[in-house]
Write a structure and sequence with these properties.
The protein is α+β, with helices and mostly antiparallel strands. The protein has 3 domains: 48 residues; 84 residues, DNA polymerase, domain 1; 180 residues, Orthogonal Bundle (hpI Integrase, Chain A), CATH 1.10.443. It has 13 helices and 11 strands. The protein is elongated. The N terminus is likely disordered. Belongs to the 'phage' integrase family.
Amino acid sequence: MARHDGESKRSFGTLRTLASGRVQARYTGPDMRRYKAPKTFATEDEAKTWLRGVHRAIKDGLWTAPTVGKTPKAGLTLKEYSDDWLKHRLVRGRPLKQRTREHYEDLLEDHIYPELGPLPIRSITRDDIEAWYKKTLVDHPTYRSHAYSLLRTILGTAEDEERIPMNPVRIRGAGSVEPAHEAPPATLEELAVIVSKMPARLQLMVELAAWCALRFGELTELRRENVVVAKDRITLNIRLGAVRTKDGRKAETTKSRAGVRPVTVPPHLRDAVKEHLQTHTGKKKSDLLFPAKHGGYLAPSTLYRHYYKGRSAAGRPDLHFHDLRVTGATMAAVAGATLKELQARLGHSTVAAAMRYQRVAQDRDADLAKKLSELVDVRTTD
């Protein structure tokens, strides 16, 4: 029977799902004292198996109480605990993606372990965290926030597992960072200039980045089988994204479940999509829409070499390729998309980003209203 404290009552022992998603097992011994498993488990089945073993030992008279006072993990260091955390970490019931795991490994090895790795987790204080934070990645605010957030999550799990009394990672605002780059969306005229400067095989990539608000990884993983051409519409079924790992570029699932989505291509691009499929895409279902010249995934550097020339010609050297996604989101908002519609089209799991694009759209609408009034002023002057 489910209990309000998050524990699940069983005939022998209890199971508790922690905030980390791992499962803690507890039981009452023959001495009427409460004991918990020396480790947490990835699944309820693993925890139940452990409890069955303890129960059998009690019934067979083989059980001995865990030695009170003997705490082999009392000196468990942050590095030891974090290495184990990384190995068993689950997100929505799944292991970490390779790119995410590699990013965490780099943050730990390069920026967390040198200062905090040797310390026993029970001894780490808020002063230790603040001293570490003050001198870590000061000139790289985004990576600094990533390192801080990772450390906070790891020690948050340790708190859930009752390995430490309280998470000492508590610096207000340290887990967020103001965007270092925020360029205005491209205008239709600027977008047309950029597209005109791209090689024919990459022109549609720029157009889909803008009009469908797709990410670079989603575009480079698009395959013929993801393009559904019907009589009155063309739909792109976004399923995966290409990411860079230490083993090279590979396909991974999207950032969240919301990233798996159908995206309808605006009608004015239908002919361009059909032409691209006919001229620049292989005939197999698995063939990429935008491959490298000699096959495989398109490298960012190849795209940027052409894209940078296009944005310069358009007078927009500040426009990153990802800003085309911002452009598409803003155009959708200007066209009247609701927050939920924006969220679905962009593949976001929350409405926060959609709200941002709606605010940008409102600002642009205010600018438009101002320009309309300027037209009236011109007529009055004449």
